[in-house]
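Lay summary. Proteins are chains of building blocks that fold into shapes, and those shapes determine what they do. In this project we predict the shape from the chain. Here is one chain we studied, written as its sequence of building blocks.
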Amino acid sequence: MQREGYPLPQLTRLSGFVRTRQRLHRALSSLGWRLLFGIPAAALLILGTAHAARGQWDEYSNEGWIWARGVRRWSTQHAEEIWQGHSIGAAIVVILAGLWLWSLRTSNPWRRRLLSTPLYLARAGAAFLILIALASLIKDREIRDHAWALLNSESWWLLPEFGLFFASLGCFIQSGEASTTLTRRLWTAGASAALTGALVLPFRSADVRAIVLDDGNLVRLTYGIAGALLLKVSSLRTRRAEPALVTRCRDHLYQLRTAQSTSAALNLGIAQAATFGTAHTSAVSSIPPNFPQLVDDLRTLLAGIATRIHAEQQRTVICLDELDRLGSDQQALAFLSEIKAILGVPKVHYLISVAEDVGAAFVRRGLPHRDATDSSLDDVVHVQPSSLVESIAIMEKRADDLTEPYVLLAHALSGGIPRDLIRYGRRMLEMLEGRTAESRGLELVEVSHRLIKEELRDTIAGFRTLLAKQQWTADNADWLSRYRILNEHLQHTCPHRTSELVAALQYVAADITPAPGPSEPPESARQLIIEASAYIYFALTLLQIFQPLGFDGRRKDAAFTRKPAADPHVLAEVRLELAVSPHSARPMINAVREAWLLASFPTPDPSDTIPPPRTDPCPLCRG
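And here is the predicted shape, written in a compact code that computers can read:
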């Protein structure tokens, strides 16, 4: 309906009496304002152009009637010859023309052309009338003589001012159609100045007065007004008949409503002796369609829409975005099973966006068993994360102010996922705003520190929320307290001193196997602790790669080792592997640290505690 230019219906049908009253009220209100200005304007125009119009009618009406009678006589004569069979060729042409016209009854392009023909004729007539007025103005010998005399006189500079008379009229017209108050006031001021200057021109030169008061100007103005009216008529648009497919779409929307009711009443009375009254009440209730009927109606409607669009050399594509938002993968698969009946409509294509777990169910291809995706979808396109080259290209379009080291950091944190990559890029741009030239060399150090610290703080807060739902005791609560202490480190640390933060991160990131006993964490919390330590291990590696000065030199040293893990793209692969399993991600992080020449830290003793944060302010930050 929107594609065809029809508004969506309000799914509340009022009574016919209420709808008629509303339409009548709007029509009368609009008509009242039009009549308030239209009647005086029409009276003034008729009064001013009546004499010129009568003169032109008296001059050309006889010739027009003679031409019309000639056309009628010629048409009648040839029609009689065809009727009596005296012109076989003309009869054949008429028959073929009739068949051709009948074949065009279902042609939408010819229907539009037929409806637009009066508009094109009105535009041609308007152009003809305006051109006649301009041609007569140029052809008038007296106007040319006065204009030439004005040009050769000492008052030749008055000739350009003569155009103000016509420009002022346009200014007054445009002043009422300006979109803003300031523009409308400027138009009004310019129009007033132009009209004032134009009105005094006839009193300053006899030649100008003769040009303005020429006898033919009234006729020319009449032709111009008639042309302008025809242009106004040509801008009107006939109300086309509503296509049958749009009507079916509207009825289908109303059919989805479960119950509707309308009522209307009208009572009329005449005195006490004679009373005339009428009352009408109607109620309409639609029965909700059952599922098979709803599917069949939708298939029929989609087939009609697709056939119409296919005839216009276009395609019908229905998009279902983020199907996994329904809940679990089982709920998404159940939804596909319910709607698979409408996936086979001819010329209708479906683009369904699902999460990886739902897409993986289809990739199995019936192993070990067939499901809804294997019999519903034609193909699955797995959207891979961006490579480093693709991430650089994306950031050049979205944030071209970021240099390559910043893009590498965003690529590593996002894992190459474009949505997260753009989010990190925007956050970096916010951090870089307002930087001074003196601190330009420390930008990467400060930005990487702040960004990694923010990600760590948000991630640790999420893990603490999940761990808080587990059952803890006084003996094993130390596992939960270490994340609180680590958050305090993240709040008080700065780029100028990171030794305490690195020590705390090493303590939490260490792969410590909890010893059996009272201090062992709950079984349900063990997996969360392992995942948190692996992510903190990854964040610590990023912090040690980007935080110290000399990132470019450290990157060259890593490349000199010729180890595959020295590629910066491996950092993004590690981030993606963390979403799969922390156990498979740790060996990758160890390989990255070895390739980037980062020292391995010793495993802390289980009896040790996390170092406390340093709370005294940094003198560099304070300065």
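What the prediction tells us: The chain has 24 helices and two strands.
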